[in-house]
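We now fix the convention by which a protein and its fold are recorded. Think of the row as the fold of the chain written in a discrete alphabet. Here is one such record, which you should read through line by line.
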Amino acid sequence: RKETRLYQQLQTRFKLSEQGQIWMMVHPQALSDAQNQQLKQAIEGPKAFQIVVLVDPYREGAALPGLNGLPRAGAQPASSLPAAIANLGISFNPNKVVVDAELAAKVQMTVNGKSRLVDDPTWLRLSASNVPPAGPLQSAIAREMVLASAGSIEANPKEGWQFQPLLQSSNNAMLVQRQLLANGGFGDQLLNAATQKGSKTLAGLLSSADHSKQILILADTDFIDDRFYGKNDPVFGWQEISDNARVLLTAMDLSFRTPSLIALAPKGNMDRPLSRIVQMRQTANQNLQQAEQQLNQQPNSPATAQQLREVRQGFRAAVMAIERWLVLVNMVLFPFGFAVFGLFRRRAVRGAGNSYVINN
């Protein structure tokens, strides 16, 4: 199986300690009695224990058909929260998906043969405002975080445990049956069928009283897929465009700390993007989307199709011009500038060495 970029970061950032146990469960299915017992013993045992659990009511990667166009054998779109964790007072309904019109992300869809950008209330664009005030993930979201068909976590922790929400939806979020989404439901159809309006907890940290046991729970698994938070740039290579990986890594930093470090604030966001270049690309992309939407609203005709091709060609030409300029600056102008500076510096040093100072 191909390793994701986030998995590669986890390998280099975290190291197992002999003094404790660290588990990570992604999209778990129903555990056997023996597996649940092993997890229960780790939670109740004397050693420090940390676990990251990613559950999902509708894992979109698992719901995709195979190469033959048919559902993949054995694919399970819904996760199952292990009983050993549920018994601590955590509940997760694998049959309910969060829909939130306020946080809906725009997705590309083909409608009547035309490609359009539409709001998808099951794809949530989270910002720092979706982190509880003074929450530990405030510094982790500088751009946005994207979740897809996420679930909701409810907590009523048993005695000796405490729960801290880490990510929350808007106050107008609702829950809809997963099967409606699986049957092709979209947009207003899902919103009209949704119930239980109110803020939903999308991620949280369950801790023992002494913080020696930490259980980090996130109700989505799609967000760790490479395509949800990054892309390959022809000039700069892999570029993160959302903070999905940063949020998970920061949350893991929080949960894996020793008790004496829990009160310390997490590291700030040190991302320093080339804001001018990013702004130019975003502006060009927005202009392209607006032009496409205007042309898609016109009747189908050869002239309209030709205009659409010209708009897309213009967009590609603008992006290529930016990339050529960056290549020119990095590969020609900067080296040339350093070479000229070096020559002048060398001549200045030689001149100083051959000069004389006369004191009267």
User: Anything to note?
Assistant: Residues 275-348 form one domain. The chain has a mean pLDDT of 78. The longest strand covers residues 114-126.
